[in-house]
């Protein structure tokens, strides 16, 4: 079985290296095909591993020693257990679809080969992240996906906005990674190992303060990667990257790494429920906060990005309250329907010549039926309507919040569900139905190639049926993860389900009703609440004023005053003094033996005087 | 009056100063060699005197070395001097300025 593990892990790397060989050359179709095939192989072997893993058998291999110095011993080890195998299958499945899709999407891009090289490198890093059996390996993968995310957001680096967004994402993640590193150091310091099994076996012996710090620091890392408040601004700006990247990295896989970390470190968080509660509260806040920003935004991809943020909030609520398997379940279903939504958005963008303003679309259903159907399916799944995947996972999260008697959290999530349904269908209505605004603006949309649509069908299928695997999923992962005890009465649970479904349905109904009649009037755009939301609560502005500007001014001061006036001036002065003395002293070198001898005598005399009067301390 | 170490050292010093002034003042290359010889031998006197005073032979041995070095220096130096004289017809130091920097 080990060989399947290695195939899963290294097939994407191989693909990435092959594509990298041709990175600087013009488009070659086979790089796309080879990387897609290799990712497909990786997917197949992770499915084989999924079948192999059960309650008693997990796969744990040590590939080689990595750091072995003194007391430090960190191997390159990999573990395939119930949690990581779920992540592997999800990641490789979505990656396969995205790779095939990208062959169509990047068709006319001159950096076609480079794109596939980065994309496969990302998959490799993500697999390292989820398969590692210790925190150090996880951190390597963590940084690897961060790097690939930077490369891919800034893929069109000649656009200033893209390179800016890439840097923003990278820097924000770096701030959070510092927290994560502190957490790892603390673990190593207190436990003496970074292996998951050893850490979790010894963690109970630590005092609560240390545990709390570890939990907080690890969560800071998770906040950066999963773009939780207040480090959330990078995710919306990351939409500057190509759309397949948004689908793979900024919806389905990388941003869920934070949730994965919390699930992985569940044994730590189980001992510090207070921290878990804080995580859940923050998650619930983000769920509503991000959804509210999605309500008014006019940028197709940003709406979906905010929706991702909001769904990550849901996952953190579940993970924070100890319902790890539900968080993982929502992570998986979300990966399916959210990447489908993004890839559909990519089709729309292509049809509209990269126009992103949804107010300029409308009535696209006639020209792109397949995409419209796929995106509507994904939106229904996102809104959480029975029997789609989102219903099962999201409803469970609401139940958990209610079960925990965290009614405020539950209410926030409840509101969030309504908002989600509304903005999803606002998007669908504005893009695919209603008045054909795009005609007036002179667009001629056309459907994408058939193979792109075929590539999306597995995701659509899973977005519909994934929910029905809930029980087998539960049985499978709770072999490893702590089960969550529902004490809720069955009838109350039923009422909750109906209430949530009702609120989601009414959100959809309201959106359909409103936007089939031309939407909201222009006067709304003058209101304060609209301005607040469209400007993202002025948070980017706030960051610019309080962090960026002062830092910029400080750097400018350091450059112009300290560096130029002090450091450079000192160095220049030393050089000038040496040059000046040399210029003066070269007159001694007259070539006249007699005067040279005189200088020599003078020198000897000076040395003698020095030797007599200045004695070295013995 | 006994002639002691001090007298020898004074003699050595006087000779050294004479040599030094010669090195600094004379413009004739040949005179420069003489001055150098005086300098070296002034040092020799000092060495030998101190060696005798302390009963240590190494000073005298060093004096022999200096004599040998002085002899070879003069041999090479005079050879060059003769060559230079044949070329330019003068042994004036101020005419030797080819190394001006």
Describe the structure concisely.
The complex is a heterodimer of chains A (618) and B (101). Chain A has helices at residues 2-21, 29-52, 82-105, 112-131, 135-153, 160-191, 196-202, 208-225, 233-237, 243-252, 257-264, 266-271, 273-296, 300-320, 324-351, 369-383, 389-403, 407-432, 437-440, 450-465, 470-477, 490-516, 528-534, 539-585, 593-613, and strands at 59-69, 72-80.
- Overall mean pLDDT of chain A: 88
What is the 3D form of chain A?
globular
The CATH topology of chain B is Helix Hairpins
Distance between the termini of chain A: 73 Å
Number of helices of chain A: 25
Oligomer: heterodimer
Strand and helix layout:
The complex is a heterodimer of chains A (618) and B (101).
Chain A lengths: L1 H20 L7 H24 L6 E11 L2 E9 L1 H24 L6 H20 L3 H19 L6 H32 L4 H7 L5 H18 L7 H5 L5 H10 L4 H8 L1 H6 L1 H24 L3 H21 L3 H28 L17 H15 L5 H15 L3 H26 L4 H4 L9 H16 L4 H8 L12 H27 L11 H7 L4 H47 L7 H21 L5
Antiparallel strand pairs in A: 1-2
Helix pairs in contact in A: 1-2, 1-4, 2-3, 2-4, 3-4, 3-10, 3-15, 3-20, 4-5, 5-6, 5-10, 6-8, 8-11, 10-15, 11-15, 13-14, 13-18, 14-15, 14-17, 14-18, 15-16, 15-17, 15-20, 16-18, 16-20, 17-18, 17-22, 18-22
Chain B lengths: L4 H21 L3 H26 L3 H31 L13
Helix pairs in contact in B: 1-2, 2-3
Give short descriptive properties of this protein.
heterodimer, A: 618 residues, mainly alpha, two-stranded antiparallel sheet, 2 strands, B: 101 residues, Helix Hairpins, 3 helices, elongated
């Amino acid at each position: 079985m080990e060989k399947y593990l290695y195939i899963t892990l290294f097939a994407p790397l191989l693909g990435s290296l092959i594509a990298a060989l041709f990175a600087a050359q013009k488009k070659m179709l086979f790089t796309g095909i080879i990387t897609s095939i290799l990712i497909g192989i990786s997917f197949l072997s992770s499915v084989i591993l999924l079948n192999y893993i059960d309650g008693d058998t997990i796969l744990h291999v040590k590939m080689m020693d990595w750091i072995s110095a003194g007391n430090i011993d960190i191997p390159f080890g990999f573990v395939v257990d119930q949690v990581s195998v779920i992540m592997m299958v999800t990641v490789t499945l979505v990656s396969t679809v995205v790779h095939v899709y990208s062959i169509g999407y990047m068709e006319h891009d001159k950096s076609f080969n480079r794109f596939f090289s980065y994309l496969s490198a990302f998959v490799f890093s993500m697999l390292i992240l989820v398969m590692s059996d210790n925190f150090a390996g996880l951190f390597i993968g963590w940084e690897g996906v961060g790097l690939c995310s930077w490369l891919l957001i800034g893929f069109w680096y000649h656009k200033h906005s893209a390179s800016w967004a890439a840097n923003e994402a990278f820097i924000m993640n770096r701030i959070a990674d510092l927290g994560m590193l502190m957490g790892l150091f603390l673990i190593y310091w207190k436990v003496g190992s970074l292996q998951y099994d050893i850490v979790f076996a010894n963690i109970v012996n630590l005092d609560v303060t240390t545990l709390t710090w570890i939990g907080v620091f690890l969560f800071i890392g998770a906040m950066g990667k999963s773009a939780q408040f207040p480090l959330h601004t990078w995710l919306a700006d990351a939409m500057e990257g190509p759309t397949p990247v948004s689908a793979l990295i900024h919806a389905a896989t990388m941003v869920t790494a934070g949730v994965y970390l919390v699930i992985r470190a569940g044994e730590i968080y189980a001992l510090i429920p207070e921290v878990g509660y804080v995580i859940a509260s923050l998650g619930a806040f983000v769920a509503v906060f991000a959804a509210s920003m999605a309500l008014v935004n006019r940028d197709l991809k940003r709406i979906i990005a905010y929706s991702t943020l909001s769904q990550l909030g849901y996952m953190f609520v579940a993970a924070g309250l100890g319902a790890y398997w539900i968080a993982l379940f929502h992570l998986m279903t979300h990966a399916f329907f959210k990447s489908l939504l993004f890839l559909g958005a990519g089709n729309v963008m292509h049809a509209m010549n990269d126009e992103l303003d949804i107010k300029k679309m409308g009535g696209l259903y006639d020209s792109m039926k397949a995409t419209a159907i796929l995106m509507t399916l994904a939106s229904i799944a996102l809104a959480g309507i029975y029997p789609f995947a989102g219903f099962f996972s999201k409803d469970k999260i609401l139940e958990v919040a209610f079960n925990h008697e965290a009614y405020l959290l539950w209410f926030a999530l409840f509101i969030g569900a309504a908002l989600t349904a509304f903005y999803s269908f606002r998007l669908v209505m504005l893009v695919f139905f209603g008045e054909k605004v795009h005609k007036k603006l002179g667009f001629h949309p056309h459907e994408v190639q058939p193979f792109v649509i075929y590539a999306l069908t597995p995701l659509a299928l899973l977005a519909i049926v994934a929910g029905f695997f809930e029980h087998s999923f539960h049985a499978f992962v709770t072999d490893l993860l702590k089960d969550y005890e529902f004490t809720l009465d069955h009838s109350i649970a039923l009422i909750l389900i109906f209430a949530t479904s009702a609120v989601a349905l009414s959100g959809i109904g309201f959106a359909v009703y409103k936007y089939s009649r031309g939407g909201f009037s222009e006067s709304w755009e003058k209101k304060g609440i609209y301005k607040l939301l469209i400007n993202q609560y002025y948070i980017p502005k706030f960051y610019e004023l309080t962090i960026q500007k002062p830092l910029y001014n400080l750097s400018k001061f350091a450059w112009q005053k300290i560096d130029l006036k002090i450091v450079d001036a000192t160095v220049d002065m030393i050089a000038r003094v040496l040059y000046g003395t040399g210029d003066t002293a070269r007159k001694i070198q007259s070539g006249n033996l007699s005067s040279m001898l005189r200088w020599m005598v003078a020198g000897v005399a000076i040395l003698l005087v020095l030797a007599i009067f200045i004695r070295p301390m013995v | 009056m006994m002639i002691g170490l001090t007298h020898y050292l004074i003699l050595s010093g006087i000779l050294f100063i004479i040599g030094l002034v010669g090195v600094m003042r004379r413009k004739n290359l040949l005179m420069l060699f003489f001055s150098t010889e005086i300098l070296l031998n002034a040092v020799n006197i000092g060495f030998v005197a101190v060696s005798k005073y302390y009963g240590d032979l190494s000073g005298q041995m060093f004096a022999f070395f200096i004599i040998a070095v002085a002899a070879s220096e003069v041999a090479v130096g005079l050879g060059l001097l003769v060559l230079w004289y044949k070329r330019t017809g003068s042994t004036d130091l101020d005419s030797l300025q080819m190394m001006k920097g």
